[in-house]
Amino acid sequence: MKTICVFCGSSMGFNPMYRQVAEDFGKLLVDQKIRLVYGGASVGLMNVLANVMIEQGGHVTGIMPQHLIDIEVAHTGLHEMIVVNTMSDRKTRMLEMSDAFVALPGGFGTLDEISEVLTMTQLRLSEKPLALLNVGGYFDHLLRFMDHGVAEGFIREEHWNSIIVSADVNTLLTKLGNFEAVDMAKWIKAIKTESNDK
What we know:
Distance between the termini: 43 Å
Shape: globular
CATH architecture: 3-Layer(aba) Sandwich
Number of helices: 9
Strand order of the largest sheet: 4-3-2-1-5-6-7
Oligomer: single chain
Order of helices and strands: EHEHEHEHEHEHHEHH
Number of domains: 1
Structural class: alpha/beta
Helix content: 40-55%
C-alpha cells in the first residue's frame, strides 16, 4: 500500500485516547512510508493526524469542497490540497486516490464515508479494504448494528467479515495488507436464489 485514506472526526472527542490514537496512527504511516489522503481540515482529529504526519516527514494530501474552504477550516500546511465542488466529489476523489481506507472515531461525516466505501466494495466498484480503528470500543454499537443486519438477512455475512476491525494500529495495518475482496458473483447468485424461494 502506498496511500491510505483516513476518515475521522472534525471534533476532538472528550477522551484523550482519541487524540493519542490519531497521533500513533499518523506516526505509523510515516514509519511505513505510506501517504495520507484525508478531508483536508485544520480541526479535530483530522488536524491532529495531518500535523503529526507533517512533523514526522510524511506526505499529506487533503481533499475539500470549496464551501468548507470558504469558512476557513482548511489546513494550510499540507503538501497538496485538492479543491472539489461537492462532498460527493470529495468521496469520489478519495476512492480514486487511495489503496485502502481507515476510519478513526468520528461523527456523521465519518459514518457517511464508511458507508460509501462499504457499498462500493460490496458492488465490486472498488476492491479496496476498509478498516475500523476501534479504540476504546468506539465502533462497538455500529458493529452490533451490522451483526443485527446479518442476523435479519439484510447484510451478507461475507461482507461483514470483509470489514477489518482492530483497536491496535499495527495489527490493523497488517490486516489491511492481507485483504482479499469478496467474490461478487457468489453473493449475487445467493440473493437471487433467496428471492425466488420466498
